[in-house]
Amino acid sequence: MTGPSAPFPTALVREDLRDFTGYSSARTSAVGVPARIWLNANESGRPNEADPDGANRRYPDPQPAALVDAFADVWATTPDRIVVGRGSDEVIELLVRALCRPGGDAVVTSSPTFGMYAVSARLHGTPVIDVPQTEDGLTWRVDTEAVRAAAVEHGARIVFLASPGNPTGAVVPLREIADLADALADQAVVVVDEAYGEYAEQRSAATLLEEHPTLVVLRTLSKAHALAGARIGIALAHPDLATVLRRVQAPYPLSVPATRLALEALTPQALAATQRRVLETLGLRDQVGRQLRDLPGVRAVYASEANFLLVRCDDPDQMLRTVAAAGIVVRDMRHLPGLDDAVRITIGTPEEMSALDDALTHREIHA
Ligand code: PMP
After folding, report:
1. Three-class SS of residue 302?
2. Does some domain include residue 310?
3. Is the full-model pTM beyond 0.90?
């Protein structure tokens, strides 16, 4: 444990970016100027017909202060620890950009996992070292000790852990996350992607941030908050790392309409409604899990702490055809190593889940 006031180790930031201040936009370079007339950003003087009140006429604040404050409230942290981006996808890319040398260093992932960690690394020319998860037919487990060893061996700068994982649905215990962050503190940032955190029982790894300066937690409004179309994700990080991430970010990541939606989604009333939707999803997840386990031809339904179930079946082609015939699309996972018999099913509304049940119980899904 490194203590609440521990600094972020600057050596983890790409050497060539340590003194990089980023693009100076009209918006960021004029902060605090007591102006009446703004003629510094080549915006239109009059609004668009489609935007009569002119809310979208000007470039937005790169990190909208009201939204950053609202996230800080929700996460019981300070605004300097928050970086808002165009979905977690963008934040993942910022981490790779800021911490890995283009064409060098390494990131560690633990498959099966969310594909964007490897995509971002690959686009940066950074090698991806994979440490496969283990499973016992019921639950998946990240081998954090093997992850640590691989990160040390390959000089990784980032470890990406999804918790709950996609597509595994399994959480990484907080104790192991804390130990991993401590063990790699001089070398790598440990990123805990909690895109599905609202569905999990374990408390957020955000509660570890003060004590572990090299830990980063990702959250999104795309899942439980039901705003995937708005593209809003955040990183919770040490203030020094958050500053670096903002500097390597493209100038205006959030549109004005998206920011408005996100702000409304973080009001107490909207958060309470989100909580009710989450509870509904949890109930349905258990019910659908039981129904699936009872079906002939289903080999495994993994325990899930997210809003989906990972299912292995004797004949995945038949399963996919059966649901498709009922107009239902589930995710074919057979492209992932070790999942050549698997599909992932998102938990939708009660009506959608009974349509799924009807489709599956009225046909045998084995050949
Ligand atoms: N992380 C995980 C683990 C995910 O499964 C997904 C989306 N499938 C994302 C991040 C992407 O989230 P966002 O919409 O915020 O980019």
Report:
1. coil
2. yes
3. yes
Question: What span, in angstroms and rounded, lies between the C-alpha atoms of 187 and 174?
Answer: 20
Does 120 reside within a domain? yes
Residue 114 CB–ligand 1 contact under 6 Å? yes
| 211 plus 331 within the same structural domain | no
Single residue among 266, 289, 307 that ends a domain in this structure = 266
- Residue 88, ligand 1, Cβ within 6 A: yes
Q: End of a domain among 245, 266, 287? A: 266
- Indicate whether residue 162 lines ligand 1 (CB < 6 A): yes
Beta bridge partners of 346: 308
Q: In what order do the strands lie in the sheet with 308-313?
A: 298-301, 308-313, 342-346, 331-332
How far is 189 from 209, CA to CA, in rounded Å? 12
Residues 245, 95 contacting (CB under 8 angstroms):
yes
The span from the CA of 99 to the CA of 367, in Å, is: 49
Are 164 and 197 in contact by the 8 Å Cβ rule? The answer is yes
Convert the pLDDT of each residue in 169-187 to its tens digit: 999 999 999 999 999 999 9
Instruction: Using the atom order of ligand 1, give the atom closest to the CA of residue 223.
Output: 14
Assess whether the previous peptide bond of 164 is cis (omega < 30° from 0): yes
What one-character DSSP code corresponds to residue 185?
T
Burial (CB count <10 Å: 0-12, 13-18, 19+), residue 57: middle
Tens digit of pLDDT for each residue in 9-40? 999 999 999 999 998 887 777 777 788 999 99
Cα 305 to averaged position of ligand 1 atoms, centre (Å): 15
Using CA atoms, how far apart are residues 85 and 245, in angstroms rounded to an integer?
A: 10
Q: Which SS3 state, helix, strand or coil, does residue 345 take? A: strand
User: Which residue CA neighbors atom 12 of ligand 1 most closely?
Assistant: 88
Domain that holds residue 144: 10-16+62-266
CATH of the domain at 74: 3.40.640.10
